[in-house]
Amino acid sequence: MDWSIRQLLVVVICCFCSSVNSEEWSLTNLPPEIPMPPVITKQAPSKHIVDPRELIVIDCEATGSPEIRYSWLKNGRELDVDSDSSISWSAAPNSGTITIELDGDNPDKSYEGKYQCKAANHRGTAVTNEIEVTITASPLFAFDEDREITVPVGAQHVLECLPILGEAIPPPNIYWTKDGSNPIDLTERISIDADNNLIFANIEEADAGEYSCRAEYVKLGTIRIANTLTLIVDTASPRGARAPSFLKRDINLPPVNRGEDLTLRCITEGLPTPEVRWRRTSGGALPAARAKVVGTSLVIEEVVERDAGSYECTASNSLGKNKYEVMVTVNAAPYWKTEPEGQMLAPGDDATILCEAAGTPTPEVSWKRNGEPLGDQANRRVSGTTLSLSELVKDDSAVYQCIARNNLGTRITNAYINVVELPPIMLTAANKKYAYVQDQDAQLHCLSFGSPKPQITWYKEELLAGDRYQILSNGTLVIATVSTEDDGMYKCMATNKFGEEALQAELSVKRKTRIATPPIALEVKAGNEAQFVCVVDKDPDLDLTIVWLKNGAPLKPGSRITTPVLGTLLIKDTMSSDSALYTCLASTTRDEASAQATLSVIDVPEPPLNLQLSNQADVSVTLSWDMGNENNSPIEGYTIQYQENRIMPGEWQEMKVIDGRDTLTADLDLNPWLNYEFRVTARNKVGESEPSDATERYTTPAAAPNAVPGGIKGEGTEPTNMVISWEPLPGLQQNGPGLRYEVRYREQPQSRRRRQADSDWTVETVNDPNGKEFVVEDTPTYTAYEITVQAKNDFGDGPLSDVVVGYSGEDFPAAAVENAAVGDVTPRSVRLDWDPISEEDVNGDLKGYKVRYYSEDDPDNVMEKTFEGDEPTALIDGLTPYKNYNFTVVPYNGKGDGPPSSPPVKASTPESTPGAPGALRANVVDSKTLDVQWEAPLEPNGVITGYTLTYRTMPGPGIPEGRLGAPMEISVDDPATTNAELSELEEQTWYRIELQAKTKIGPGDMKELETSTSDPAPPLKPETVEILDTGENFINVSWVPAKVGPRPSQFYVEYRERGTNSEQMWLQTESVDPDPYSETLQKTIDGLNPGTRYQLRVVASNNFGKGWTDIQETTTEGESPLAQAATPVGRQGWFIGLMCAIALLILILLIICFIKKNRGGKYKVSEKEDALKGDPETQPIKDDAGFGEYRPRESPDEVMAKPPTGSIPSLAGSDKPGSETDSMAEYGDADPGMFNEDGSFIGQYGADKKQRPPEEPTSPAAFSTFV
Question: What is the share, in percent, of the chain residues with pLDDT greater than 70?
């Protein structure tokens, strides 16, 4: 090529490059002005099955320059397209496609064959694969009459499909229909074999109907229908359950071709329906993406060579298991592992074409040039799958064919060599800007063209080299895992031996988008709310979009599923269908990040299905069922329940609990004489399912009892009887009508060497089915008997129970123990020994002995200790030292105690060390002196000889032993002395005081006191008084003692009812000792009146005075006991009744007067008035007394001067408690808080008619009294 032509090509290519939008391009897209060999771009499939009613179109298209010329071969010979009227060229430009038009009714079979297209120009010739054209055929089924077939329910059966007459091209889709409906679904019970027969593993009643086998020719849109088979199901003679077996086995399976679908059939029969499982036993696992089970068949789509191997089918039901293996072999027509590509090279270059083919059997590879066999050429060499050319020249431009062939077919591929001369030209736009995100692989494009192909290098100030940089074959620079340091300008340089070309590119790196907080997996109960939160971190310059996916598909929000804020997914009222894999997809314009989390909506399982009874026997049955929906929580087990018609009819009871998910059968042991129903529940961690539907009823026949009454024993309630008792058989074990019990007993033989005859037994019958005892009278005392109890009914005798030994009743022991004596004695224990009583005197079973004892200084306090067993000795511990004790021994048996031993045994315990002193306190005498006082020990344990008092300084209360001062000791030798004065002490200092009492044995237990010296002054009042709780009769008070000032020796609480001002009326609780280890103290005031207002204060005291807190008030809960008594008389029932009676009497008198007046009689009013003068209740009420009104306030002297009169309550009187009671508050100096005339506290509840203001002081004069 001269230089002018080269310049022209550069201009043309530049014009072309300006229109290139993609960085991906091929040499086939070059402008037509550049010479290019033909490249096949479209061809028909190698198997071309055609419908004769339609035009036969055989595609062939190619690109190249100059213009392509097309020709065709048929069966290896030149096809004259132009001379055959049935064949025509496609009208499309630059197309070599031909069209064949046939007679649809009578197609010419001569047009079937193998076609091959050639595309040629002066640069070379490309050829297509051989295209085999076949005309479709849809032959009919063989003819047969419609038939009826009768099959017993439960039996297996095969409905045969008629054969097709002739070869069907392509093979039809065979299926069966029932009653003319849609195709029958294939299941584990219903399958189709390789001969297209319909096979039932077991017949069900619902299978009855009309069946037909159909062939669907998809290519022709035609369906052929075979004869009709009417299936009649015989329910009168059902077939029983049976283990699985195989009807047909694909043992000699022919090889399957690569790319075809493989179907492995497992045709079974059995009852219950066998469960079919497939697995691969060699060569790896099943290809999950391409394998599926249809009915009982395993289908593997688009088989490849690695699918070859052994496969196993397992069929199982509750009665057994069966399995078989089938070997699969895969053949493959040739296909390309490495398909060669066209190459544009310069003169003098070397070329290598690699062509790798695969197949089974292994294909042979051959080569052609422009569709013709290779000739000899000095610079060309063939080595198997490789064709090499060296020192290329222009004439080496051609299309080379690589041909792979085995017995299953032939494949042809084309690869051109185009020898041209051209300097580099950049096809990528200059100064292009790229933006990527951190950690992405950036790609900067540098697409160039030239011949020979330009060499690409990239620079960023210097040549880029290293593992992070990769230059692709199209010149693109790939920078792995970019960072902000990769920002900047880059330069691409394209070079070949005819020149070089450069371009600039700019890279900008953004911050990576990442999921900062991914959503977490959730497991929620159905109906609850689920919320996923997804927090995203991204570059601030990039906009963020978050989309939620459900199982990979975009999730559409709605009323139940919302995204309240960006990154949050809220699902309300969750249901089972919400269980899925949810993805948070965060996207920017530059990158995206995602995180996934699963949502499992769990619920109780669905009830088990399809309950069936099998293996039915008299007292057993097998129950089977199918698993219901687990609702996303695996089933953990099942519970079988039953209901029967006799014992507890209508009540479901638990029969059997089964653990495990996959146990779907259970053998049930039944009881005779019952009518059963069964149901099953499933359980998972959420809970128990609803029960399944119940089975049909199952009745067991009656039978003799098969159980022995339990709990058989013989015990006497009196010395002359024995009660034989047992536990009656429960209803489920009675097994039939007429249940009764036969009781057999006899005295236990003295020798067990010879078994006595059965005639020695006494036999009694208890006819009550619920009977549970029989009483044997007139027995000797505590005599052994052998006992058996046997259950019987109208159907026979049950098993005889084992012999049980029982005893007649015991009597009290008849004799006392003898020779009781004292053994070892310690200060706190005494051991007694005695002679045991004889067996004859025990009168029963000796349980042991009781020792009764008392101290002579307290003879009324008799104590007792029990010693079980027959040992004639006892150790009585827990005694008090230095005491005189009396002991008696009493034998006892099951009946009770025998006589005590006599005379009592005496023993004295020796002295011991004393217990701790009874109390220890210290009072402040002055700032350096403490008066220590104590009480004698409550447990002297001997004669007290004195006391030892030790004291020492300490930094504060509760300080550990190591920080105490040196001990000082005072010995008190007079046992009557109970105090000691500690002088010359340090001021304001804490001391620990320890006190021990002594006997001649030694010092006893220690009493400790921690106290301090302080000023000789009254203590400060306590702080922070708080009422913790109140009840009807108590108040609980707490306080904080003063932390400074003189120390109190005790605290107590003073209290009184409100309204009592006299200081003498304060009551006080028991004292509370100071506790240096507690910040607060408390005391409960008991014995109070309910519904009463109380005043209280806390008092701290010592030898020098007291400190009082301010008065606080509170009210006890409940109603005052005087509240009801204070109800006004005008509201009491008796008073209202009396008033009504008086009104009625007056009305009657008025009526009588009216009648007499009308009759002319005279009514002597004056006489009536005189008669009424003697009745004080009828006297007019004077103004000075008032009716129910308060008297004017009078002095106590005026009140005392008047004689007491009855008080009349006001009809409009106050409802306040105490308004109708006479108060003593106005009588002299009587304490209003104390008793009234009748000795009660009623006076405390008096009240003024007018309410005093709160600040008005309470005084005795403030109470008014009705007169």
Answer: 86
